[in-house]
Amino acid sequence: MTGRKRILLGLAALALAACDGGGGPEYDAAPSSMGGVAMERAESAPARGMAPSEPSPAPEPGEQAGLMLAYSYSMGVKAPKEAVAPLKSAHEKACMDAGPKLCQVLGSSVSSWGEDHVSAYLNLRAAPDWLTTFRTEIAADADKAGGRVTSDNVNTEDLTAYLVDIEARLSAKLALRDRIRQLLETRDGSLSDILAAERALADVQGEIDSMTAQRAAARARVDMSALSISYESDPETSTGAFKPLAEAFKSFFRTSIASLAAAVNFVARAWPFFLIAMGVLFVLRAWWRGRRTKRA
Description:
The chain is an alpha+beta fold. It has ten helices and five strands.
């Protein structure tokens, strides 16, 4: 192995260690220091005639000018018990009819307990413009069904720093990968050196794939907002005014039988003590009579 080859491989290993940055990026990481160094390394590659073969796509003009925010909404709906499941099904169908580019259903469920309690859940994500209209339709549908929207919350997460940082780190990794590839194509060395360089190339490619997936997931959160809807039956509309009296008549026979059973159980538990008490009273009466006879 030539001295020039050793120097080039050492420089590639140092660049790989420097680009690692001590772990994956966090949402609150400041990209001013790490991102700036990574961008400087990425920009040095074209000057040497080794531009990345898969350059990171540039952000949209709107993303460069403004913040990249991820919105998530949560709504609560109360309705009569017979309207809970149809409301959930109608909203789920509206999302599916809109198509996966505008709305995607992530999960739904319906459950009931007792005679008056029904609950449902719908989780989806959709394009912000479509979701604004859909949230208005949810309130209108609840009102038509005799229910109401009990809660409407929104949460926002700023992903601007995270996306800028991961873009810079990804560009640096792409430049490093191309430099290692050129070393493998243009330089000769021993089998162990070639295997070491190929392992370094595989590690860099794995990090590139991971960062690409993280960037895609973050951009998906920015492009499509999340919405979770919880449906619950309203006790005021689910329970009628005469229902307690009807339930009392329904339970009359059962209550009567239960009372009779309680009486039988009481007798079954008390009759041995009753016999013992009768025997004691008989003995006391005989003793009292014998005493009166002696006195007479």
